[in-house]
Amino acid sequence: MPFATGVLPTVLPTVFSALLLLAPAGVPPASGPPSASASVSPPLRAPAVPYDGQPLHGTALFSVKAANNAAAQEFTVSATRVSRIAVYLGSTAATGRVTAQIRRDKADAASVVASRTVTLESLGGAGTGWLEFPIGADVTPGTPYYLHVQATTAESKSIAWYGTTTPVADSLTSWNYDRAYWGGWRASTSSRLAFRVNPPDTERCGETEPCYVPTSALAARTAGLLSNGTATEAVLPSFAVGAAYVDGSNVLTLPSGRRRYLPAGAQKSTVVPADDPGAQAQIAESRAWLAAGRVPGATPDRRAAAQRALLSMRALLQPNGAFAAAWAPPWEYSWPRDGAFAAVAFAATGHDEEAYRILRYDADTQRADGTWEARTKLDGSGPPDSRAWQLDGNGWVPWATWQWYRAAPAADRDERLRVLYPMVRKASDHAAASLGADGLPPASPDYWELGTDTPNIGTAAPLLAGLNAAADLADRLGQAQDADRWARAARRLSDGIAVSFAPLGYPRTADGTHGRDSAAAFMAPPINGAPGDVRAALDSTHAALLLPNGGLSPGNDPGFSWGSYAWTASTSFFALAWAHLGETGKAQGVLDWVLSKRNGLGELPETVNGSGRPSSVAPLGWTGALLLMTELALEGSPQPAPPLRPVADGARRDGAR
After folding, report:
1. Per-residue pLDDT, 280
2. How far apart are CA 459 and CA 519, in angstroms?
């Protein structure tokens, strides 16, 4: 009988890797409907125009779950061979097999011309979308055949063939087999199944219509990025199915073999033949950009991950230097924190221009008092809302400036630093002035973007790094008074952290009432020179925040729950810290977990849900930057932490409060 409307949710598809099992022609599915129960078919007719496809799929029409159900679509073609067929299928079952056959008689299993089977497991489980079957069948042009579909599963779940209840002009009959309801086959008077026979490349899934995607993959809003240097476009999960980036580029190869890319000067992507000159030129340019820098990675897989991280970060970087956290509406803003890590990663991999562009944007968007908004619109016009500003930016930006300076070409780096120096001075003076009698900064929203009642390590640690970095930069430009002032402040802050945070294992807040925090890793290189007790603190914090899915929660504050979601950036903090502390085994273990959570396009997601699936958005630029910095350290090229500048005893006393 017709499938109950609303039983199967309509979902948008994303990545799959299907294992197709070829069945010899003439072999029906094991549980195929018995021909004895079939109704008599009306005389076959050969229409003047081939009926080889119907794309509408708004309704789950017929169950195809064996042994009581199947469906068939009559069709004709003008060709002598059928090489590919497609049906729009929806399944709430995660396991089982779907078999598509071309038959001469829908009810006669002995009339099979060709057969193909796919497992639901290979598709990623339950899902919905266009399911393509490569198939080889010699046919007679103009002769009616039947596309027969039946599925088997041990689950008490639904598997249905979708279509439309709207009449389709000049169509051939769609057939529903329901042994319990109809007693066999029954012709539909108006409903028509969604199918394609020998679809041209422009009608293949992944072009204008999505391929079958597991429902679980829809936890992520985005799957990848297209970019032309001036514009960026997200690859939605529904159009990442079966696609892959052309190596060394942000150009996608689709299941059809054609390519999707964002042409130069365009705001919207297009699909072109594989040899399109514009796409080829963009691929060549991307590869040249990569070759001009360094792509770290000890194995081909890790090098591929680093390459993808670089290209995704480049796609997130705007021409004005704004660095988008990711490419979905809530993330399409520039955070000083994310941009700082991106600048460091760009500089460390030899992409000086990109790193400096971010820092210039920071200078342009700094507030008059030396602080930054929590985030800004990508055009630099200001914050998108009233979210509270965050003091940690006053540490991250000077730290990133120092890391850039170290890696920059020596010939003109002092001159370029002088352009940034007013920004560093305002940021560092504000940071120094914010320290209280205990040497700590005031309570401020941290990278969780949540406020605390007492000072937190997520603000204190970056400010310490920033003050040390600023003092060293001041020395390099001969600004001794600035250097002394910031070095004294850094000493006071370091002492305050040692008194208030260190004895508790560097928890989230100085009062120890808000649990552990992954920001404890900010006390390790390359952010800060590691205190002697930081190794033990990293071990205990990692153990406290470890989730069943293998990743880390940002923290375990009793007053706030992150649920079962692991955050790839928070997890990567420990890979970065351990790699710089020489604890290679621990670093590689964490890194392996992070890399195992890449999606089908090789992108790093923001979060991983309790089932171990990528979620939220992909890629996240911050995680990509952390990956690159970790890989460099594991290859023997670590980034140092800003040095703690010596201060005379008298100067220390003079600076104390």
Report:
1. 98
2. 9
CA–CA distances in Å: residue 52 to residues 21, 77, 132, 196: 24, 6, 14, 6
Residue 522 and residue 447 in contact, taking contact as beta carbons nearer than 8 Å: no
**Distance (Å, rounded) from C-alpha 423 to C-alpha 340?**
14
Instruction: Please name which of 181, 154, 184, 188 lies closest in space to residue 61, comparing C-alpha atoms.
Output: 188
Residue 638 DSSP class:
P
Q: Provide the Cα torsion 141, 273, 250, 19; round to 10°.
A: 20
Q: What is the pLDDT of residues 632-657, one digit of tens each?
A: 999 999 999 999 988 765 444 333 32
Q: Say what the pLDDT of residue 647 is.
A: 77
Q: How many residues does the chain have?
A: 657
The first and second tokens of residue 645, run together, are: 């500048």
* C-alpha distances in Å from residue 240, one per residue of 5, 205, 246, 253: 28, 10, 13, 10
**What tens digit of pLDDT does each residue of 120-154 get?**
999 999 999 999 999 999 999 999 999 999 999 99
Residue 43 has pLDDT above 90, yes or no: no
Q: Retrieve residue 190's tokens.
A: 């108006």
Q: Which residues pair with 59 in a beta bridge?
A: 163
Tell me, what amino acid is at 118? V
Token reading at 207? 């072009």
Closest listed residue to residue 460, CA positions, set 437, 435, 481: 435
**27 pLDDT band (50/70/90 cuts)?**
very low
CA dihedral 539, 542, 547, 548 (to 10 degrees): -20
Cα 566 to Cα 558: distance, rounded to the nearest angstrom = 17
Q: What is the pLDDT of residue 219?
A: 87
3-state SS, residue 49:
coil
Q: Are the beta carbons of 7 and 61 closer than 8 angstroms?
A: no
pLDDT tens-place string over residues 571-590 = 999 999 999 999 999 999 99
C-alpha neighbours within 13 Å on the C-beta side of residue 146: 24
Cis upstream peptide for 587 (omega within 30°) = no
Q: Name the phi and psi angles at 99, rounded to 5.
A: -115, 130
Angstrom distance (rounded) from CA 378 to CA 308: 22
Is 468:494 a contact under the CB 8 Å cutoff? no
Residue 177 contacts residue 189 (beta carbons within 8 Å): no
Q: Which residues of 421-458 are buried (b: 16+ CB within 10 A; e: fewer)?
A: bebbbbbbbbbbebbeebbbbebbbbbbebebeebbbb
> Per DSSP, what are the bridge partners of residue 456?
509
Q: Is the peptide bond before 526 cis (omega within 30 degrees of 0)?
A: yes
Contact 448, 458 (CB under 8 A): yes
245-271 per-position pLDDT tens digit: 999 999 999 999 999 999 999 999 999
Identity at 3, one-letter amino acid code: F
- Grade residue 241 by pLDDT with cuts at 50, 70 and 90: confident
Q: Of all helices (H) and strands (E), which one includes residue 285?
A: helix 277-291
CA 487 to chain centre: 40
Task: Please write the tens of the pLDDT for every residue from 196-206.
Answer: 999 999 999 99
Cα–Cα distance measured from residue 531 to residue 525, given in angstroms and rounded to the nearest whole number: 10
Q: What is the pTM for the complete model shown? A: 0.90
Cα radius of gyration rounded to whole Å, the chain: 30
